[in-house]
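Incident review: delayed structure delivery

Summary: a single-chain prediction request sat in the queue longer than the usual turnaround. Root cause was a stuck worker, restarted by the on-call engineer. No data loss occurred. The affected request and its eventual output are reproduced below so the record is complete for anyone auditing the incident later.

Affected input:
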Amino acid sequence: MSNVTFPTLGVILLTATAFAQQAPPPAGTPPILRASEVKAGMQGTAWTVFAGSEPEPVPIEIIGLMKNAWGPKQDIILAKMGGKAQRTNVAGGMSGSPVYIDGKLIGAIAVRLSIFSPDAICGITPIELMLEINDFDTSRPAEARSPGEPARKASIPAQEGLSPALNSGVTLTPIESPVVFSGFHPAAFETLAPMLQQAGMMPVQGGAAATHLSSKPVPGWEKALRPGEAVSGILVSGDMSMTVMGTVTHNDGKRVLAFGHPFLNLGPVAMPMARSEVLMTLASSFQPNKIGNAAEIVGALKQDRHSGVMGVLGEQAGMIPCRLRVRTFGDGDSIQKEKELRFQVFVQQKWTPFLMMATLFNAISGLNDFAEESTYRISGQVEMEGNQTISLATMFAPAETPIPVPIQMAGWWGEKFNRLFHNPVQQPRLKSVDVSLDLLPQRRIATIQNAWVASNEMEPGEEVTVKVFLRPYRGGRVEEDVRIKIPAGFPKGDHRILVSDAETLNRMQNVAGQVSRFMDLPETVSLINQERTNNKLYVSLVQARPTVYHEDKTLPSLPGSVANVMQNGRTGNRPFLIAPETAVEQMAVPFDRQVSGSYSLRIKVN
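Output delivered after worker restart:
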């Protein structure tokens, strides 16, 4: 490589003029030139789309072969791009652009050597590495992750505005794949962008991309995605969309190879694959990028591997249909405005929870009705195969915390899907997601201050009135009378009446679910459905007898001897929790506020 000289600009321009008359490569199986046969100084042609949908030729000068650049026995062909690429530099979205020498395919442009270099130096993934993709096994890499996944402790790059490659000092970097956000509010885009950058993607805002609500390939898919054309993977489609753009390297008439580097590094996938059109290629010495839209779906991506992605034309990948209704209420609790959003979400255990969170957060961020002191009430249903249904409801009001309420609520929503998709026994199959989001005026939150009963001595079967006092935000104290009945068989002795919020009662059940490594999907669904909503006031009777929490099961009022036997005889792979007391819920009082706090009254049953 040290004896190789770069071609002059004049030579590159002459070469570009000569290649401009060539036709784009057709689909089929072209002859290939292996990396070991590529020599420094060879002249070639790359094909990529700069605007529209028609690939254009780009002159290529081979610099040499970087041995073991991708890993052991995985070389990278180093080359210099001319023509329009001389001005745009190696742009995001060029990943997968096929390179030919004398009519033979040598590989795909996939790597940039430097961001600020005045020369458009690129790295080419050899085609023989990409052709291996379909021979790999179908196991899912254990370390595949989604952006911002808590278990991996993903963090935003230390210096805002710089790519991860700059911060880490890496000079040989896979070309970022543009993630085109359409229908996303700027506030949502700015929040989500750093998470995607850590996954090696470049977020960009686009127009009306992937507005279709069906993942079925359109008629004429047989003639789609010639080498050099733009291709997109669909993460979200509909009234809001997220698509990832690259370039087709090889099309044998049925299977398509693209990108030349991993997309999400997931191994086997099932993601809608669409042809794309490029609006423009932004020239930049820092972040050159293609900006475009996903068009018709023509197949499905099936493999996401180290040296590229593979899709199959005509195949269909299922997505999760979602409906989100947003209602704005006035001071009189009457609906002032209502709108409905429909979209579909990519199905994958690491990415579906993130995408559910992102779409909900975006629905809030883009509202003209948004106000700092608004309270959010959310309810939803998740329909699953096997006649399983999850019902969700909660309320979020502003509090003196540094995390904005929309982010808290989106995180709560995404966490439910995270629990479903990280089930270690069975993968969930979701049929539909239906969620309603209400924006209520003012900060609606109330904290339990204290409670009172006329007498702390009572009889089994007796009805008791409990006065509960709550302090709302900036308002007079609220008094609530709650009548409960002491069960006829309630044991004599000292006990407690617990007045509490939902979190107090949910805590032990949630912890029990988290420590279990063998909880099946039906048990996960059951545990989620047992969660209490935080816009209710709960009154429970508490007695000093232990409760065992095991996965989704609650075993109350166990004799101490039984609990001791269970604890001493349990095995390490089936953990459970034992609480020293048993709280039996007696009453749940609905409120139009988020309720927080708890208070205990000591009583004696004669």
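Verification: The chain has three domains: 1-154+169-317, 320-440, 445-605.
Action items: add queue-age alerting; document worker restart procedure.
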